[in-house]
Amino acid sequence: MTIYYSTRNKNHRVSSTDAILNGIAPDGGLFVPEIMPTLPLPLEQLVTLDYKELAFHILKVFLSDFTNDELRACINAAYNDTTFDDALFAPLKQTDGNYYLELFHGQTIAFKDMALSILPHLMTTAAQKNNIDKDILILTATSGDTGKAAMAGFADVPHTKIIVFYPKGAVSPIQERQMLTQTGNNTHVIGIKGNFDDAQSAVKQLFLDKKLQQTINELGYQFSSANSINIGRLVPQIVYYIYAYAQLVQQNVIAVGEVINVSVPTGNFGNILAAYFAKQMGLPIKTLLCASNRNNVLSDFFNTHRYDKNRPFYVTNSPSMDILISSNLERLIFAITQNNDVQTKALMDELQSTGTYTITPDMAEKLTDFYAGYCDDATVLATIKDVFLKHNYVIDPHTAVAQYVYNAYKNETNDNTPTIIVSTASAYKFPNTVMHAISEDSSTDDFYLCDRLEDLSHVPQPFAIEQAKNGSILHDTVVAVDKIYDSVLDVLK
Ligand SMILES: *Cc1c(COP(=O)(O)O)cnc(C)c1O
Q1: CA–CA separation, 106 and 56 (whole Å)
Q2: DSSP state of 184
Q3: Among 25, 34, 380, 425, which residue's CB has the most CB atoms within a 10 Å radius?
Q4: Pocket residues for ligand 1 (CB within 6 Å)?
Q5: What is the DSSP letter of 460?
Q6: Within 10 A of 162 (CB to CB), how many other CB atoms are there?
Q7: pLDDT at 144 over 80
Q8: Residue 190: pLDDT band with limits 50, 70, 90
Q9: In ligand 1, which atom is closest to the CA atom of 267?
């Protein structure tokens, strides 16, 4: 039985179903397993499993209060040929000694689909198991990607409703069309007259509003959150690191037991934390490369042992990593204090009040499995171009950040360990940046650029692009920030 407890108070212990339904602990801490599970089968066996079978074995040890049938039903609903366009779900592509783990074959062509396609099913199953008679209401503020991925995951899942708030005019045209063409009777998209922070703060207020809570309960709903601190998002991400390892074995790059590295483009520290968990479970990972863009709060943290969010915020060409508070880092902090909840809470309180904290030398010693670096916008363009010219393979700007940091690591260390470059988005999701890097085309029409990208890359356009281009606009609500409360009630009534 895997029990979860809060990183800020170990006496707060819950089952995996409660952890999934609540998202965050009442003290503001994050749920972590009291005892980290080990790999559930010998590595020789794990590397022979297909994606869904592997997912079953990994989910089973983390979500131990689900039955086998429940887990299999969730996995089948999440990973199939209507939700993914590649039979391997997370294929590993080789180009002359580079290994790209393509995590963008889901409905929104970015890696968040890997977890958001299964989270709704885990949530509704958890609600049933806990005899909750209310429907689940998800409220999410998005800067563009998460909202669409969450809607695609929750669309038409019975007993759920999702409302996504986005800053009107501050997301890319493709991102906006992707959201506004979203189908499903239970999905709602609302534009906010303001920026992302306005939308995010307003949604946080809604969650804290006791009166709204009571009203939505009376209407038959209870709040839940789909954000990346939910263990229902973290655990499914562990699966593809083991699957990547398995593919390196099958492609005869490594023998079972040999080590690999992973390079992960990092924002909220969710994806790379899953790799760290996989390592803790026993997967032979040597170094975890934490790759940031110009918002390099994490690479500074790993290199100076001081977290400092008091710095300018930059809008970059890898926008899904534009973030100054990496929420999931709290779980790493907890691990390197050797599960000390008091010490973790003190550091997080300090972050809250001053925007900074410094870890102790004892804690820093436990970070030797990490290497961290960052990459600015111009280097992202140069890296996309370089990979295209050398390997005839087109990577997206986020993947380029991971590629660049890996190149720097290799130059610095001469480490020849096979390294997985975690590819978090399709190049088609960022046609403007990508085409600027690899061609002379100066058009700013995203759909035109997608056609040209197809000519250059010979990779067929994913269905997501066609859908965004040709789908009917199904949502048109735009409200002022102070009307967000009423807009929720309008949707529910
Ligand atoms: C969300 C996202 C990231 C960052 O992942 P984290 O888990 O937040 O570190 C990187 N690339 C893309 C394309 C994303 O959508």
Answers
A1: 19
A2: -
A3: 380
A4: 110-112, 145, 228, 265-271, 320-321, 398, 424-425
A5: P
A6: 27
A7: no
A8: very high
A9: 9
